[in-house]
Amino acid sequence: MANSDQPAMELRRLSFRYPNGRLALEEITCAVPHGERVAIVGPSGAGKSTLLMHLNGLLPSPSLSKDDDAQVAIEGQAVTRSRLQQIRRQVGFLFQDPDDQLFCPTVQDDVAFGPLNLGLDRAEVLARVEQGLAAVGMADCLTRNPSELSTGERKRVCLAGILACGPSILVLDEPTSNLDPRARRQLLHILREFAGTLIVATHDLDFVIDLCSRVLVLESGKVQADGPTERVLSDPLIMDRHGLEVPWRLRR
Amino acid sequence: MHIRDGILAPEVCLAAGAISLGAITYSLRRLRFDLEDRAVPLTGMMAAIVFAGQMVNFPLFGLPVSGHLLGGVLAAVMLGPWAGCLAISMVLIVQAVLFSDGGLMSLGANILNMAVVGAWGGYAVYATIRRILGNGAAATVSAAVIAAWLSVLGAAALFCAEFLCSSRSAGVDPRGVLSLMVLYHSLIGVGEALITGAVLSFVLARRGDLVPTPNAPGSVGTIGRFAATGLMAALAVAAIVAPFKSESPDGLDAAAQDLKFDKLEVERPALVLDDYAIPVAESAWWPALPVSLAGIVGTLVVFIAAVVLAGITRRNVVPIRVADGSHGN
Amino acid sequence: MGTSGIGSDTGSHSICHALPAGMKLLLTLGIILVAGLIPLEHWPAQGLLLALVFVGLSLAGVTMRYLVRRLALFLPLLLVFGLSVPMARSNDAAWSWTLSLWLRCTVSFMAGLWLVHVLPFRDLLTTLRYWHFPPALIAMLGFMYRYTFILWDELRRLRNARAARDFGGGPWWRVWSINSQVIGLLLLRAMERAERTHRAMLARGWDGSIRFLDGKDAG
Question: Is residue A2 over pLDDT 60?
Fold first, then answer.
């Protein structure tokens, strides 16, 4: 599946305008190689979520119907309407609010949702549910109602539901929002175990330092900086100009 | 509004159940074309909204009782008649099976009276009036207010028919129950019309783009709509002209008090008697005239409310902003 | 939520809870049907049925306190409703109609309470699947059930916020207007959430066809 001479994710001059006329993304170009963990940081409203949703074809972008000149490519494949199912198989998307993502009455049903949509048979689905929940340390919660779980547990169940689909790329939108320190640390451990490519949009810069090797700074829909985590995050010029702060750990 | 088990005869429940089953099946089929892959999340969410919305109690003009939203017209206006009918049906199913509120055998009758008449009938009235009044926010609110009023009277008239069929053999003249219920329903109908109008007015002011125009694909054909509107009007007139009515206790609030949701109810401990605790004694002897009068006064109140709410809406609505879809960037 | 089938495992495992879910539903429906068919002159049969339902409730571990509370809310309304016929025209037929109504309704109500107590929602969905109810309806019911909890929490927060500002008082039209706004806001937020959830479903390969884990009519 993984075509190793192609980047896992590539954007070619990606622009996006909302129906109300607001330009959310402007000419973004970048490539993420296999296995890299990239953070996208920037002030609220910079276009981070919009960018992430393009990776999964979740927005009605004109680029979706351009077969030859696609602006988004996953594993060398253009993200177009006809390939959406295939793309969504490869890209797992963790949304910011776990309640948006857990819509089934039990944990088991929810984790099984993705694998069932892949058309797998029952035994395979059950095996994947088990693996997914085991990977996030929630194996004993099969019949629980998601409403009874804590925010951190819900987040982990969401992640299990995504891992059960076997993605090669994980896209995470604000994964640490509303998590207490312990839940945050658990999430960090789970994500470090993941072997594929990671793309994380977040405000949590300490989390970025612990997880990612590369950082993109996004503001006003444009990439303002791109480089190794420590270099970008410790540069006061970049950070201050884009509404961010150099984390304490990197201050000299 | 719920009909309890034991009030209607089994054969009446069976017949109503068969009609409701057909209505649900038909709604499901139309829904698939109407909302496509959004059908499940939108309809399920609407059912949850109506269910939660019914927990909000509205004081009744200083009386020690309170009423609440029924939601059939509101759901149909937001998502169309098919999803609306399904959403209200699901609310009724969950109330019957998880709260013992309403009845199991009379579930079909409840769905027929509230979901089918409320969403299908209410929507037909709404769409017809909007066709006359146009597509403005004020027209939307007026149409929904009148549709909500007619849907409650229509449900009431239908209940009368069901109740008369059920107690026919007993050799009883159920006029006492029926005329009492006209009074109740006039009050409930006015409440439903006011709440529906006010909620919709609020929604239109904030996110007018969420309220679709009735001529969207999947809506009923013109002839069907006029037929349904005529039927609704006839039912409403029947409810007002004939002192002809009945009703059963509503225990949703009671259930809420027993279960964990009583947290929501702290404000009004008196609400346990819900909509139906009006002293019954005199009204049972009341002749037809005052009862019909209640219906006519209710109609007037609703029309005035429609005009006033439309005016408020017109003032509040800002030019429609298109959803920009960027949540919590 | 301990006293009912709401939520998942409530921890009660009486003999009644152990029955198959479908049987619980059929049993309850059967009792309600029989109660509706027994004519008044056979009132001892109706009493027997009432006793049977009562035994069922005890076996299911329904506390007396809960039962009395539910009945205390239910019976007065039933009494009023039943009385309105003999009040309009007091004769023997009217009174026997009323008595029979009271008995029927009480038996049915208590049978319904039993079902509420012993049938968890998850089992209800499984049973409906087994009985070949339309998959779309079952999926929507599951969705509704899940989000009802979330909306209740949201509603509570909205009302607290409102109470913090105006203490929930004021003339009736003001309360009506504020309550309508609370419902309106709840509706707006929930519809926006439904859009996000729809996106989350698409991201996991949703194509509009409903598939269940039990493997029946998948697709």
Answer: no
Distance CA A195, CA A8 (A): 13
A16 touches chain C (CB under 8 A): no
Q: Which chains touch C (3 or more CB pairs under 8 A)?
A: A, B
SS3 assignment for C128-188: HHHCCCCHHHHHHHHHHHHHHHHHHHHHHHHHHHHHHHHCCCCCHHHHHHHHHHHHHHHHH
Tally the domains of chain B.
1
Which range is least confidently modeled, B269-273, B288-292, C177-181?
B269-273
Question: Residue B23: its pLDDT value, please?
Answer: 95
A216 within domain boundaries: yes
Whether B251 and C113 have beta carbons less than 8 Å apart is answered as no
Model confidence at B220, pLDDT cuts 50, 70, 90, reads low
Q: Is residue B321 part of a domain?
A: no
Contacts of residue A113 in chain C, CB cutoff 8 Å? Answer: 201, 204, 206
Burial of A142 per CB tally in 10 Å (0-12, 13-18, 19+): middle
Cβ-Cβ contacts under 8 Å for C87 (sequence gap 6 or more):
B176, B280, B281, B284, B285
- Report, as an integer, the average pLDDT of A32-49: 91
A174 touches chain B (CB under 8 A): yes
Nearest to B186 by CA among B144, B156, B230: B156
Structure tokens at A228: 């190794």
CB contact under 8 A, A145 and C146: yes
**pLDDT tier at C215, thresholds 50, 70, 90:** low
| Residue C100 banded pLDDT, cuts 50, 70, 90 | confident
In this prediction, residues C100-126 reach a mean pLDDT of: 90
- Is residue B326 assigned to a domain? no
Of A110, C104, A120, C167, nearest in space to B9 by CA: C104
> pLDDT-based confidence at C160, cuts 50/70/90?
confident
Q: Which residues of A touch B44 (CB under 8 A)?
A: 103
Average pLDDT over residues B265-287: 35
- Which pLDDT value is given to residue B101? 82
Burial of C108 from C-beta contacts in 10 A (0-12 / 13-18 / 19+): buried
- Quote the CA–CA distance of C157 and C192 in Å, as a whole number: 17
In a domain, A3, yes or no: no
Domain assignment of residue A227, yes or no: yes
